[in-house]
Write a structure and sequence with these properties.
This protein is α/β, with parallel strands linked by helices. It has one domain. The protein contains five helices and three strands. It has a three-stranded parallel sheet. The longest helix has 17 residues, at about 75-90.
Length: about 100
Amino acid sequence: MAKTFLFLDDIRNPSDVGNYIRASLAELFSKENWIIVRNYKEFCNYIEKKGVPNVVSFDHDLADEHYRDSMYNPDEHSKKKQVMNVLNSYWSFAK
């Protein structure tokens, strides 16, 4: 089965990332077929419909001030925590 790659960023595309990271990782962003989601809601919809992808690239400036809908909506904040708990259960994050 093919790996799935999910890219969460409100502005950039995966090919843009190559300008900011080391060459060994830049190749991943230029060659893989990334599914692009532009906001938290699209991210949650993808996870709910398709499940947890193999790889997720998070925007470098993810913060509530960039995603105001989740900042003021307790239901969205709760959903955000649930999604992160699901992701954490599938992956161990390397330092």
